[in-house]
Amino acid sequence: MVTECAADYHSRMPATESHRYLLVEHAGPGRRVRWLGNDRDARVMIVASGYEGAEPPAELTEPRFESLGAGGWRTASREGEFTFSARAVDLLEMRPALFGTLHRPFALATRERFAARCLLALLRLPGGARLLRNWHAKRSA
Question: Which DSSP letter does residue 87 get?
Answer without folding.
Answer: S
